Amino acid sequence: MIKSLIRRTGRLISAAIDAAGNVLTSDAPAEAIAAEQAGLYEADEMPAVEDIEAAAGQYSKAAELARAGDRGKRAAKKVLDRLPAGRYGAWLVSRVTSNRQTADLDAIRTIFKAHGLGDVPMRQSAPSLKVERLADADETAAAAELVSA
Questions:
Q1: Would the pLDDT of 28 be above 90?
Q2: In the beta sheet, which residues pair with residue 86?
């Protein structure tokens, strides 16, 4: 048991050192790293591990419900998209024009090319939050102890 705990602690420390090394040796400029870290908790503001676990569980459940809802909508939309507008029992099916606008990248590329402006500048999207349940709860407890130490 003690050997197992020592091995796990060693793996966690190695992972933490690797992660720190990746941040420190990153090719990303300091401003980008600072922007990514903006809004994160300071060490003295960190919520309790129990609160973090509760939030992660709540997030995971909500994400699964959203995925299930999206799958249901896609399946129903396959039928509904092919219907002509009209009343079907208690339901009215119609199509409305959206007020949402998006940039026409093909037109923008044409304008850039016509004026010799090179490629259309693009920016990276913001990092997505990813929450995963760890398989081994003992490693989670050991990691929490390392963080709080």
A1: no
A2: 93
Ranges 44-58, 117-131, 132-146, most confident: 44-58
* DSSP string over the chain: -HHHHHHHHHHHHHHHHHHHHHHHT-SS-HHHHHHHHTTPPPGGGPPPHHHHHHHHHHHHHHHHHHHHHHHHHHHHHHHHTTSPSEEETTEEE-----------HHHHHHHHHHTT--SPP--PPPPPP-----S-HHHHHHHHHHHH-
Token pair in block for residue 127: 């990092």
Q: How many CA atoms lie within 13 A of 17 on its CB side?
A: 6
* C-alpha span between 103 and 105 (Å, rounded): 6
Tell the residue number behind the tokens 């396959």, with chain if given.
Answer: 78
Choose the most confident range, by mean pLDDT, from 7-21, 86-100, 134-148.
Answer: 86-100
Query: How many CB atoms neighbour CB 13 within 10 A?
Result: 12
30 dihedral zone (left: phi>0; alpha: psi -120 to 50; beta): alpha
pLDDT at position 9 over 70: no
119 pLDDT more than 80 = yes
